[in-house]
Amino acid sequence: MIAVGFVIAFKPKRNSKDWENDSALLYATIESIVNQKSQHFMVYVVHHELPNQIFESKNVTYIKFHFDFFDIGKIENAQ
User: What's this model's pTM, rounded to 2 decimal places?
Assistant: First the structure.
């Protein structure tokens, strides 16, 4: 039985100033969640590109987000 779900939106590589660091921080975050006593949870990582380090666990699912992020600059300059 799943009691808690964690959804982590992982930013696109193009929006990252340090992809290696962002990937490492995501890995550490997932590792911290997975190391809890209770295993009645799921972690869903929504991404454009997979991070450099993939945390493998039955409690972690990676979901590819196929749509581009909204760019307010393009809308404001479209007039």
Answer: 0.82
At 63, is the secondary structure helix, strand, or coil? Answer: strand
Report helix, strand or coil for 52. Answer: coil
CA distance 9 to 26: 10
pLDDT in tens, 1-57: 888 999 999 999 988 899 999 999 999 999 999 999 999 999 999 999 999 999 999
- At 26, list the tokens: 């995501």
* Backbone Cα Rg of the chain: 15
Instruction: Report how many helices (DSSP H) and strands (DSSP E) the chain contains, helices first.
Output: 2, 3
